[in-house]
Amino acid sequence: MILVLGGTAEARELAGALHARGIAVTTSLAGRVARPRLPDGEVRIGGFGGPDALARWLVEHDVTSVVDATHPFAERISAAAGLACAVASVPLLRLQRPGWSDRPGDRWTWVADLQGAAAAVGLLGERALLTTGRQGLASFAAVRAVWFLIRCVEAPGPPLPPRHELILDRGPYTPAGEGALIDRHRIDVVITKDSGGSHTVAKLDAARERGLPVIVVRRPARPAAETVVDVAAAAAWAATTEHPRRGRRALADARQRLAE
Ligand code: NAP
How far, in Å, CA of 170 to CA of 172, rounded? Predict the structure, then answer.
């Protein structure tokens, strides 16, 4: 069975492609979203309990390979996958969409993290569209000079910036829709993670059209791993790891290492 670490559109597409080829696939979701869009194949929900527990899970479920298709900002699960796959002798591939690059007309300021975005936002505008997700919003809690339009899939918990409005939406978004949102709320600066991909890129197009500054949070470093950038390449890789299945010896070795 192939384990796809999910939580992204690409993970869903990959599970669908493998399932369509008759390859057994289980997608793992963290359980952050109350009603996630479910992929084809089996689904398990919730954390594993760290790298050791993930390694045990791989062995117990006879996992032949793992595709880490998590979001580029999901640091901990990627680190855990690297450790667990090494311990359990399971091949690991990362499916990671390329980051965004600025184009003529863009006014981007790159920052290292959300704290950097919070420090920069008051220098660039007064009304910010904040699209970095519900985690880490505490970084903006002390920013009083800026009003925030916070857009998340699920409602965030406190602390939040003192002056804000919250909208819950999961996209997909269009440049026209994003432009209308920006105009309606008189947004003068946009804050985003460098998520990459097409699903959330429309806000960048809308900001460019209006000449608005954008604060872009750089991706965190993730452990080195064999990486592909598209679903077709990941599906081809996963299909080749499925046959032949790992030999009994490799599995017994992994069980022995985990027992020690
Ligand atoms: P994270 O910081 O890397 O992970 C925190 C913990 O959540 C992990 O240690 C693990 O718990 C559990 N976890 C994360 N992803 C999991 C998965 N696919 N299956 C099972 N357990 C998982 O991750 P995060 O940034 O909180 O993101 C959580 C999920 O949301 C990820 O699946 C990611 O693809 C998706 N997502 C994240 C972002 C983002 O901006 N971070 C954006 C869109 C989607 P244990 O230690 O107990 O195993």
Answer: 6
